[in-house]
Specification:
alpha+beta, 8-stranded mixed sheet, 7-stranded mixed sheet, globular, disordered C terminus
Length: 367
């Protein structure tokens, strides 16, 4: 086995892994965040970074925390894919009874581009840090993009019902990870990134915990997940992906399959997010490929990779997508972990995803 893949020999932390999906109560992950907000007393801290935030009840919970003396920071993307999606929450939080300067709406300058190619970096991270009842930092695929029974059907049609769809949040208790992730959230809030942020020293700094490493984007050096996968020469790799659109991602995956790695992909059903061309290229290379189609058209928003090589196993997860914006422009977080509890949680999720797959009539055999 390649030494670059050797597991870390430090003490294993006690993470918590929470999934949302049709087999869970509606709003499982937003309810988790709301309960965590309520548990932080006066003098405690809450530090969030998120892409979409449309949940008015959750925004009001942050206001209540702010009013009882919790120090809150919230960094929020100001120009998401649906530009007006966050407006109602921004209006509430920035109003006279809101959280004041604790809210930072971030719009990162874009690159000069043709009208048909808006190269706009976005704050796509999902990070939720809490000081109490014990310090914890959550990363994953979930952002509070729903608004309950009052939701806008046009927005849900575009982005999917994330309160019912497939999502995950992983909570770290490792003191090193919590401290550094909280510092990252506060730094974004204090000094919003500019166009050339990728060239600063701090951006490429990774966090090394007991059994988990955290990486941030944008970067000027090699993509950490790509670098990791380049060292996988055999065994099994499973990819759950909400977005696969770039040729570079296809090249990475087909290379693994052609060198003998048992590669399997569960992808989102939306053709905009995972294109037919990508599907054809992957299946032609021998990759086992399925689209996750739930009967209620719920989004498959998970983003994780499971790697087994010899007697070692790793899970890779976070906010990242297999797209050009995610690789080169967006602000993202990803973790590479050898923690067995995290791996087993994702492996069970994988099995549930496969069992809930619904094959459409146009797909005669699956695989």
């Amino acid at each position: 086995m390649n030494k670059a893949l050797a597991p870390q020999a430090r003490a294993i932390s006690s993470p918590e892994v929470h999934f949302g999906g049709p087999n869970q109560p509606v709003g499982q992950l937003r309810n988790l965040l709301e309960a965590r907000i309520a548990a932080v007393p006066a003098g405690g801290t809450i530090d969030w970074v998120t892409y979409y935030f449309r949940d008015i009840c959750l925004a009001k919970a942050l206001i209540r925390a702010h009013q009882r003396g919790v120090r809150v920071t919230l960094s929020l993307e100001g120009r998401p894919r649906i530009p007006y999606a966050n407006d109602e929450v921004i209006t509430l939080l920035s109003g006279p009874d809101g959280i004041g300067n604790a809210l930072r709406v971030i719009t990162i300058p874009g690159l000069p581009s043709p009208a048909t190619k808006p190269w706009k970096p976005q704050l796509h991270e999902k990070l939720y840090c809490f000081s109490h009842p014990e310090p914890v930092a959550f990363i994953g695929s979930f952002n509070p993009s729903g608004n309950g029974s009052e939701d806008d059907p046009n927005i849900i049609l575009e982005i999917g019902d994330q309160d019912r769809g497939y999502n995950v949040l992983v909570g770290f208790r490792d003191p090193t990870l919590v401290e550094k992730l909280t510092e990252h959230a506060r730094q974004l809030h204090q000094s919003p990134p500019g166009l050339f942020y990728r060239f600063t020293k701090s951006i490429s700094s990774s966090i090394h915990g007991a059994d988990t490493d955290i990486y941030f984007w944008p970067r000027v050096d090699t993509h950490p997940i790509v670098r990791f996968l380049h060292n996988v020469n055999s065994g099994r790799v499973r990819v759950a992906a909400s977005h696969i659109r770039m040729g570079r991602a296809v090249d990475i995956m087909t290379k693994l399959a052609r060198q003998g790695v048992d590669l399997e992909i569960l992808a989102e059903s939306t053709l905009r997010r995972v294109t037919p061309q990508v599907e054809q290229q992957l299946t032609s290379a021998g990759v086992r490929f399925k689209r996750i189609r739930h009967s209620d058209s719920l989004p498959m928003h998970l983003k994780f990779v499971l790697v087994e090589d010899g007697n070692c196993a790793w899970s890779i997860f976070g906010s990242f997508n297999w797209t050009k914006p995610s690789f080169w422009l967006n602000h993202e977080i990803a973790a590479i972990s050898s923690n067995p509890a995290i791996f087993e949680s994702f492996a069970r999720c994988w099995d549930r995803l496969k069992s809930e797959y619904i094959r459409p009539p146009s797909d005669p055999a699956g695989y």
